């Protein structure tokens, strides 16, 4: 059964950093592009970052460019989202998706002093 499990969220002060992870299982992870989305309270889910199957291209939401970095380790069936210089507006539940995994359960990121 295909599955995605996010981890790494938490409470961080503005300007801080977090690294999210998403572990995939049940499908051939290395064949698929993968994505990080986020959903803030009362807002629609939005695409934050994308990465190709071989990591030869990435793409980012304009508001996170230069602060967030998506990466993947195909040997570990895992993608990452390194988030630096966090702002209060980055507060959301972060989800990964891609391949045959559907959606993970999400991980809460709260940026607050």
**Proportion of residues in extended strands:** over 45%
Radius of gyration from the CA trace? 13 Å
Biggest sheet, spatial arrangement of strands = 2-10-9-4-5-6
Order of helices and strands: EEEEEEEEEE
What structural category arises from helix and sheet content? mainly beta
Label the overall shape.
Answer: globular
What's the average pLDDT? 96
Instruction: Give the terminus-to-terminus CA distance.
Output: 40 Å
**Roughly how much helix do the residues carry, as a percent range?**
under 10%
Number of strands: 10
The main β sheet shows up as: 6 strands, mixed
Count of alpha/pi helices: 0
Low-confidence stretches: none
Could you provide a short overview of the structure?
This protein has 113 residues and is mostly beta strands.
Helix and strand layout, with pairings?
Blueprint lengths: L2 E5 L2 E3 L5 E8 L8 E6 L6 E6 L6 E3 L7 E6 L4 E6 L8 E7 L8 E5 L2
Write up what this structure looks like.
- The chain is an all-beta fold.
- The chain contains no helices and ten strands.
- The strands form two sheets. Strands 2-10-9-4-5-6 form a six-stranded mixed beta sheet, with no helix packed on it. A four-stranded antiparallel beta sheet has the order 1-3-8-7, with no helix packed on it.
- The N and C termini lie far apart (40 Å).
């Amino acid at each position: 059964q295909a599955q995605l499990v996010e981890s790494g969220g938490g409470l961080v002060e503005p300007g801080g950093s977090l690294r999210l992870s998403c572990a995939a299982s049940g499908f051939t992870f290395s064949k698929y592009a993968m994505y990080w989305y986020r959903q803030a309270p009362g807002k629609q889910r939005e695409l934050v970052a994308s990465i190709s199957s071989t990591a030869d291209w990435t793409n980012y939401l304009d508001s996170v460019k230069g602060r967030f970095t998506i990466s993947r380790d195909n040997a570990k069936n895992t993608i990452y989202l390194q988030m630096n210089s966090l702002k209060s507006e980055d507060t959301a539940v972060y989800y990964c998706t891609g391949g045959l995994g559907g959606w993970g359960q999400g991980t809460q990121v709260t940026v607050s002093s």
